[in-house]
Design brief:
Blueprint lengths: L1 H42 L10 H65 L1
Helix pairs in contact: 1-2
């Protein structure tokens, strides 16, 4: 039954990580592309009838994808670290419960032996 719990924990963490990676990828990419377009607009001396050049649009797309990729990788690394720490804490709790169960078993065995010796 522990394998099923581990699989559900893994799938939940994977779903959360994928969601956050995609969210940060798209948000960062869109914001970076908008920033490049705004900078191009502000830097243009002729503000009337603004039409950005193709190079401006390509630069906005490249900067957006590059920043989105780096943000997504950063989020992915933080999710992996969060999963490892969570798994270690869960394993620690399970080991402690298993050890306490072993100690209880040993105590009950000793009490049974002492009870038999008295009789």
């Amino acid at each position: 039954m522990q394998a099923a719990g581990t699989i559900f924990h893994l799938l939940g963490a994977l779903r959360r990580a994928i969601g956050r990676v995609f969210l940060w990828f798209f948000l960062t990419g869109i914001v970076a592309a908008i920033v490049v377009e705004v900078v191009a607009y502000v830097a243009d001396p002729t503000k009337s009838n603004y039409h950005p050049a193709l190079l401006t649009n390509i630069t906005a797309a490249v900067v957006g994808v590059a920043l989105a990729y780096s943000a997504a990788l950063t989020v992915l690394v933080s999710e992996v670290i969060r999963f490892i720490v969570g798994s270690a804490e869960k394993a620690e709790k399970e080991v402690k419960s298993d050890l306490s169960g072993g100690a209880k078993f040993l105590d009950s065995a000793l009490q049974t032996i002492e009870h038999r010796e008295k009789n």
